[in-house]
Write a structure and sequence with these properties.
250 residues; alpha/beta; six-stranded mixed β-sheet; four-stranded antiparallel β-sheet; 10 helices; 10 strands; 35% helix; binds adenosine-5'-diphosphate
């Protein structure tokens, strides 16, 4: 399997605070990787570096290299808009735009200049199907996305998929969802690996076990261990991982 994402000795500072320390990691194409670890250990910071979401924070510093498809995404000439099209993001709280379900999903493609109604219709249907939402909403595409109870996060996933990203970043995508919606989103994550590389931050170790191919355990800004999911949970090589898994800290 080819590596989709490679990071080499990534260090990151917020002002004087050294938030990420020497992170080197390979993420295989079309796999699901889960980031786990105690709160505040740098998971979201690292996730947000993968589509340059941290760029606008004042007084930050990054060293090392982050490559997607072999290209340094912080290198000269990289178009951040293009990068973000290729690396979509789903946030902790579902954030549908205050517009119709259809317009939510068509938003990205329209922003890229797609105007043809038939093309948009197809993209919207395909994205909603991939987000396991089509059957629920196909008769009410003109209704507000805000009115979708239980399906808002899937709508946000459909919106992210509509620009056909290769990579989808998910920052605790189910922590604000009810148990049924959580299971649907987990199932979806498992299916999406057929077409996308998924990077999921989760507080929930059972969730990591259910959805991921590999798990990266972070602690105090360091990557302690990255291993295939079953191996990390059954046979962690680092004593700090074992301590975390048995609930001795965090
Ligand atoms: P996690 O996702 O593991 O909970 P974060 O990446 O959110 O951890 O945070 C890592 C550390 O960086 C924490 O100590 C947090 O307080 C700090 N941090 C996060 N965002 C900022 C910011 N915008 N400015 C300063 N410090 C931040």
């Amino acid at each position: 399997m080819k590596n989709k994402i490679e990071t080499r000795d990534v260090n990151f500072w917020y002002g004087d605070f050294h938030a990420l320390k020497g992170i080197s990691m390979d993420i295989e194409e079309k796999s699901v990787i889960a980031f786990i670890g105690p709160s505040g250990c740098g998971k979201s910071t690292f996730l947000r570096l993968l589509n340059r979401m941290n760029d606008l924070i004042p007084d930050i510093r990054l060293t090392g290299e982050i490559r997607i498809d072999g290209q340094d995404i912080y290198g000269k000439g990289v178009q951040v808009d293009e990068l973000r099209k290729n690396v979509g993001m789903v946030f902790q709280r579902p954030n549908p735009f205050p517009m119709s379900i259809y317009d939510n999903v068509a938003y990205g493609p329209r922003g890229m200049g797609v105007r043809d109604r038939a093309v948009l219709d197809e993209l919207v249907e395909d994205s909603l199907r991939r987000a396991a939402l089509w059957d629920e909403v196909k008769d009410k595409l003109k209704e507000s996305g805000l009115g979708l109870s239980g399906g808002q996060q899937r709508l946000c996933i459909a919106r992210a998929l509509a620009v056909q990203p290769d990579i989808l970043l998910m920052d605790e995508p189910t922590s604000a969802l009810d148990p049924v919606s959580t299971l649907v989103v987990e199932q979806l994550a498992c299916e999406l690996r057929e077409t996308c590389t998924l990077v999921v931050v989760t507080h929930n170790m059972q969730q990591a076990a259910r959805i991921s191919d590999s798990v990266a355990f972070f602690l105090l800004g360091e990557l302690v261990e990255h291993a295939p999911t079953a191996q990390l949970f059954k046979n962690p090589t680092d004593p700090r991982t074992a301590d975390y898994l048995t609930g001795r800290f965090g």
